[in-house]
Design goal:
The protein is of the alpha/beta class and about 325 residues long. The chain is about 45% helix and about 15% strand. The protein has 13 helices and ten strands. The strands form two sheets. The protein has an eight-stranded parallel barrel with strand order 1-2-3-4-5-8-9-10, surrounded by ten helices. Strands 6-7 form a two-stranded antiparallel ribbon. The longest helix is centred in the last third of the chain and has 24 residues. The two termini are about 25 Å apart. Zinc ion (ZN) binds next to loops.
Length: about 325
C-alpha cells in the first residue's frame, strides 16, 4: 500500500469514519473526543491518552494546521500513530477529520489523501449557499464512504479565517430541512460556546452563563437521534491560566465552558465534542514553567517532553471525567 498514490482510501490507512462511533456514543450517552493537532507532541499525547483510557478518538486537522505543518507531513504523522498502535498491539478506533473546511476543494483534497471524515463549514454563508456546498461535499464524500459534518448557526470567535464578534444561535426551525437537503452525517450547532480561550465576558462576581440547552432540546425534537457536534468546548482550566500568568504570561479573564456543562451535553444527542484551546494552554503552561525554573535549558526535548506529559494527563481526564468516552472500545 502506498500513501503517495494520487488518491488513497482511509480504510487502507486503518482509519474509520464516524458513523459507528456516533451510533454507539448516541446509544450509550457519551461523546467522542475531537482533539486538534499541529505537531508531533500533540498527536503523541492524544493517542497515548486515548489508548490508555481505551477511548475512540477523532484526530482533527484544521486548514491552519495544514498550512503550519504541511498537509503531507500531517497525514504521515496520523498514519505514523496508526503504525505505532499496531506495534503496541493495542488499538482504538481513530477517525482522521478535517476541521472547519471552508471550500469543496479542501474537503476533496483531504478525502483524496485519506481522511475518513470532513467538516464543511458554510455557517457564515447564506442558508441556501451553505446547503448547496454541503450537499456537494456530501455527494463526493459518500461515494467514498467518508462522513461529513456541516454547521448551522455561527459561533463567536475565530473559525480559521472566518471570524465573528457575536454568535447566532442555531435556529431549530432550520435543522430538519438542512439535514434532509444536504444528507450530512452530523451537525455542528451554536448554543453559546465559542472558539478560543476568552469565551465569555464576565463582570466581577459574575459566573459563566449556562449553554442554551433549551435550543439543543428543540433541535433534538426536530431531528431525533441525529448526531450533534459541539465546537468551542475547551474548559480553559484556571489552574493552567494561573501557571501561565505566574510564569510570565498574560491571560487575564480567560474563561471556558465548565466541565459540568460538557458532561450534560455529552449525555444528550451531542456525540462529538471539539477541544483545541485547552491543549494549547496546557502546552504553554508546561513550557513556561520549564523556561522559568530552568532558564539555562535549551534542549527542546526538555520542555516539549514535560508539555507532552501534561497533555496526556489532560486528555485522559477529559475522556474519563468529562466526555465519558473512556472504556468504550
Ligand atoms: O476551531 C478552530 C480550531 O481551534 C483550529 O484552530 O484554525 O488556529 O488551527 P486553527
Ligand atoms: P476550543 O477553542 O474551545 O478548543 O474549540 C475548538 C474547536 O471547536 C475546534 O473545531
Ligand atoms: Zn470549531
Amino acid at each position: 500500500m502506498s500513501i503517495t498514490a494520487e488518491t488513497v482510501s482511509y480504510t487502507e490507512l486503518g482509519f474509520v469514519n464516524t458513523k459507528e462511533m456516533f451510533e454507539k456514543a448516541n446509544k450509550e450517552g457519551y461523546a467522542i473526543p475531537a482533539y486538534n493537532f499541529n505537531n508531533m507532541e500533540q498527536i503523541q499525547a492524544i493517542i497515548t491518552a486515548c489508548v490508555k483510557t481505551k477511548s475512540p478518538v477523532i484526530l482533527q486537522v484544521s486548514k491552519g494546521a495544514r498550512n503550519y505543518a504541511n498537509p503531507t507531513l500531517l497525514r504521515y504523522m496520523a498514519l505514523g500513530v496508526m503504525e505505532m498502535m499496531k506495534e503496541m498491539e493495542i488499538s482504538v478506533p481513530v477517525a482522521l477529520h478535517l476541521d472547519h473546511g471552508d471550500s469543496f476543494e479542501i474537503c476533496k483534497s483531504c478525502i483524496d489523501s485519506g481522511f475518513s471524515s470532513v467538516m464543511y463549514d458554510g455557517s457564515s454563508l447564506p442558508y441556501d449557499e451553505n446547503v448547496r456546498i454541503s450537499k456537494q461535499v456530501v455527494e463526493y464524500a459518500h461515494a467514498r464512504d467518508v462522513t461529513v459534518e456541516a454547521e448551522l448557526g455561527v459561533l463567536a470567535g475565530i473559525e480559521d479565517e472566518v471570524s465573528s464578534q457575536v454568535s447566532h444561535y442555531t435556529d431549530p426551525n432550520d435543522v430538519e430541512d438542512f439535514v434532509k437537503k444536504t444528507g450530512v452525517d452530523s451537525l455542528a450547532i451554536s448554543i453559546g460556546t465559542s472558539h478560543g480561550a476568552y469565551k465569555f465576558k464576565l463582570k466581577p462576581g459574575e459566573s459563566v452563563p449556562p449553554l442554551r440547552f433549551d435550543i439543543l432540546e428543540e433541535i433534538e425534537k426536530r431531528i431525533p437521534g441525529f448526531p450533534i457536534v459541539l465546537h468551542g468546548s475547551s474548559s480553559v482550566p484556571q489552574e493552567y491560566i494561573a501557571l501561565i500568568n505566574k510564569y510570565g504570561g498574560k491571560m487575564d479573564n480567560a474563561v471556558g465552558v465548565p466541565a459540568e456543562q460538557l458532561r450534560k451535553a455529552a449525555k444528550s444527542a451531542v456525540c462529538k465534542i471539539n477541544i483545541d484551546s485547552d491543549g494549547r494552554l496546557v502546552m504553554t503552561a508546561a513550557i513556561r514553567k520549564v523556561f522559568n525554573e530552568k532558564p539555562g535549558e535549551f534542549d527542546p526535548r526538555k520542555y516539549l517532553g514535560p508539555a507532552r506529559e501534561e497533555l496526556i494527563k489532560m486528555y485522559a481526564d477529559k475522556n474519563e471525567n468529562v466526555l465519558g468516552s473512556a472504556n468504550r472500545v
